[in-house]
User: Fold these one by one.
Assistant:
Number 1:
Amino acid sequence: MLLNLAAGRRVLLAGGKGGVGKTSVASAVAYAQARAGRRVLLVSTDPAHNLGHLWERTVGDRRTPLAEVGAGRLEGLEIDPVRTTEEHLAAVRATMRRYMPEHLAGEVDRHIELARDAPGTHEAAILDRLAETIESALATDDLVVVDTAPSGHTARLMRLPETMSAWTEGLLRRQHRSGRFGRALRRLAPDDAGVDLVGSGERKVAEEGSRGSRDEELRRLLTRRRDRLAGLRDLLADAGRTAFVIVLVAERVPVLETLELHADLTRSGLAVSALVVNRRSPDAGPFLAARRRGETGQIDHLRRHLPAVPVVELPLLEGDVLGVGGVARLADAMGAAADPGSDRTADRLDP
Ligand SMILES: Nc1ncnc2c1ncn2[C@@H]1O[C@H](COP(=O)(O)OP(=O)(O)O)[C@@H](O)[C@H]1O
Ligand SMILES: [Mg+2]
């Protein structure tokens, strides 16, 4: 089921709270797809990266091969929020300093400092990087698997193009009062990521130049970024190309959080393709059997509230999901869960 979901698509996102097995599940899907011959990029946007821990190798902010997989290819990438933000800010600062009169240099630095701590700066930088990463990966890879942050930023990403339209219009109105900041702004192209940094400084500068053509240029600059995010949103909202799975464990709080996340994603126009109940206890001995019954109750609750969303169960493995061997074991369990006829599935699925 999970592997079929991934097989027909270009993007698969794994969401859910921390510690439930997002990275493990994302890794196993990516590995299984690469093993089946596809070129796969596994991207982590979770600031608490653990692709590297799980694969037992240094991954970091560059495409890194994760495993030998025969015909396919598997590479990993951890988007580093701090570095991404710093790079954005450094580029913006350099560009602005180049085009601003010397006496405004202090002003520029102050804006950059404010932007660094502004709420949402890191997240905006990550979303921008993710949009860019997926866009370019679509040309070179068959599948992008995204291990998302537990913060629910995917739902926000879906709303970002609209937010940006309102924001663009607001900035254009304020821009009527801007002169030199406006000029500097236009020269930031093609790296328009920093335009929001100058929003609060323009009032200091007198208006000059032709308002009409300046507005046109600025509008183009601002809409380019918005269009890229809108393109990504359309891709993510297209259930034919993108699958979103929520990973959880069958306990009371994670189940309640899953219902909330599902509602949030649905409101944002993202269909949830499957609920992946990870670490299902085996029916072995009274202690684990009791745990399993509790889990079954939670899964029933989930099914009652979300009857249309398929539920996939993955077994608790004996050891951690660690290294290629661990990932392969979880991938095999997914294969078994996909095939209701297999013996291994029979003792894992509830009747
Ligand atoms: N099916 C499983 N069986 C056994 N251990 C698992 C399973 N799935 C995940 N784990 C372990 O649970 C821990 C958390 O998993 P991880 O994928 O890092 O979660 P997340 O990315 O959601 O924070 C890790 O130690 C991992 O090895
Ligand atoms: Mg993780």
Number 2:
Amino acid sequence: MRMDLAGRVVLVTGAASGIGLACAQAFLAEGAQVGMVDRNAPPELDGDVVAVRADVADERSVADAVAAVAQRFGRLDVVVGCAGISGPVGRPLAETSAAEVAAVLAVNVTGQILLVKHAQPWLAEDAAVVLLGSDSAFTAAPGMVPYCASKGAVVALTRALAVELPGVRVNCVCPSVVDTPMARGDLGDVLDDPDFPVQAPGDVARQVLFLASPASRPVNGQAVLADFGLSARSAFPA
Ligand SMILES: NC(=O)c1ccc[n+]([C@@H]2O[C@H](COP(=O)([O-])OP(=O)(O)OC[C@H]3O[C@@H](n4cnc5c(N)ncnc54)[C@H](O)[C@@H]3O)[C@@H](O)[C@H]2O)c1
């Protein structure tokens, strides 16, 4: 299938690690021009690429970073919001502070809204926005209340943004566990259990590229839940 992403201008947040880095690499491999935005310095990649340091939870910082990428390439065709944090995963709710909840929402929710707000003036006709949700918007394990709440909000704001921005497609991907530094830090060796289905960052990047590509032209306001079908199973004992 042709992705038709060559020459497209793509801004990726969270591009220094994990899924965001895999997305930046995959867009570059398609011949896109890529702006890598992260609070940390990303690795150097070959291709037409610019890296900008920013904190997506800080409005001035994210506005400046978006403007820097857009001015460098002249417009934005695709915006991918990958920057995210997991927060106090594994901690019981009784030991979770308001400040910890606010920190997760600031990056995972407000950061995505600010990204799109400041990208909007630069978005080309037929632009696409792809946000990183999570299967945690739909299913939960104990000790994940702030993260799950933040990812549920990403699904809702995806729909709201699709309505808010006429002519711009806005979708989110909602993967199950992906082998990245975030997941390694939270889950450790469980990722190596052969009975536990784990995605690679490149698996998610391909989902993002499809939603960013004209190949998904009619898909808008959707959350693509990619979890090996785990959430589809009924409790019926069969
Ligand atoms: N790894 C998983 O299992 C998984 C599953 C579903 C969804 N996700 C989501 O995918 C996205 C990427 O996660 P990942 O697993 O690649 O994690 P990661 O920790 O490997 O990468 C996240 C990147 O975001 C950056 N970042 C964090 N806060 C930032 C901020 N305030 N401003 C700018 N950059 C910031 C980090 O520096 C890092 O480079 C996140 O939104 C995460 O919630 C991850």
